[in-house]
TrEMBL record:
Localization (cell): Cytoplasm
Active site: E181 (proton acceptor)
Cofactor entry: Mg(2+)
Identification of the protein by name: 3-methyl-2-oxobutanoate hydroxymethyltransferase
Pathway this chain belongs to: Cofactor biosynthesis; (R)-pantothenate biosynthesis; (R)-pantoate from 3-methyl-2-oxobutanoate: step 1/2
A Pfam family reported for this protein in Swiss-Prot or TrEMBL: Pantoate_transf
One GO biological process term: pantothenate biosynthetic process
Gene source species: Oceanospirillum multiglobuliferum
């Protein structure tokens, strides 16, 4: 399989073609996902829930992400590897740089950071040092205690404008990708039109350039509540590789997400 880079994603956006992303935490799934042609693999701090059994992402450490990034990198067949910067790994610019450096040395091709417009300075410092950044906006799960729960973001006109303008500012600061979580479909569309970098959505509607899901969610094995934006791709598949392929095809064809997975 051809190697996916930031330039590949930019070309797909320019051509109006969709791309897909899934989380992975180990070499076997990394191999399966990348062999399917899924363009991006995320070592998400969702591992706090699906691997470690916590009820939030807050307990995940940089060492946890680094270890799983090494595992994913060994199995990877050409996907772009994105690693999450966990809770408080950016307590200062210096810590942000050193921790992001660790994840790159573990095998990541880029890092993802949760926040708002204030991320700009850190993003500029990272990109100066050769670390591409995905800025994760909207519902940022590390802020769950501040938000008072996992809630759709950008619902008012002012909140929507804040997300759109933060996206633009962070792209100006050097962000290579924007990821939007749990925002109304219209906000997903406006951000995707406003910025000249690829936008990945999860619960952000069908108009973003790419889609991402947590692996365990799309395999239908997550314990407890699953979000509205999740589709169980095992429901119509006979094997995990087939479910991965159906997810990838559905994103490419624009049939996932459907109306029922979106917020208005
Ligand atoms: O940690 C994660 O899996 C994520 C995705 C849900 C975007 O951040
Ligand atoms: Na995450």
């Amino acid at each position: 399989m051809k190697t996916v880079t930031i330039s590949t994603l930019n070309k797909l956006k320019a051509a109006g073609e969709k791309f897909s992303c899934l989380t992975a935490y180990d070499a076997t799934f990394s191999h399966q996902i990348s062999s399917t042609g899924i363009e991006v693999i995320l070592i998400g701090d969702s591992m706090g829930m699906v691997l470690q059994g916590h009820n939030s992402t807050l307990p995940v450490s940089v060492d946890d992400i680094a270890y799983h990034t090494q595992c994913v990198a060994r199995g990877n067949q050409g996907a772009l590897i994105m690693a999450d910067m966990p809770f408080m790994s950016n307590a200062s610019i210096e810590q942000l740089l050193l921790n992001a450096g660790k994840l790159m040395q573990a095998g990541a091709h880029m890092v993802k950071i949760e926040g708002e417009a204030w991320l700009a300075e850190g993003i500029t410092e990272l990109t100066r040092r050769g670390i591409p950044v995905c800025a994760h906006l909207g519902l940022t799960p590390q802020m769950v205690n501040q938000f008072g729960g996992y809630k759709v973001q950008g619902k008012t006109e002012a909140a929507a404008q804040a997300i759109i303008s933060a996206s633009q500012q962070l792209v100006d600061a050097g962000a290579s990708v924007i990821l939007l979580e749990c925002v109304p479909t219209e906000v997903g569309r406006l951000v995707t039109e406003a910025v000249n970098v690829p936008v990945i959505g999860i619960g952000a509607g069908p108009y973003t350039d790419g889609q991402v899901l947590v692996l365990h969610d799309m395999l239908g094995i997550t314990v407890g509540h699953t979000a509205k934006f999740v589709k169980n791709f095992m429901a119509d598949a006979r094997s995990i590789p087939e479910a991965l392929s159906q997810y990838h095809q559905a994103v490419k064809a624009g049939t996932f997400p459907a109306e029922e997975h979106c917020f208005s």
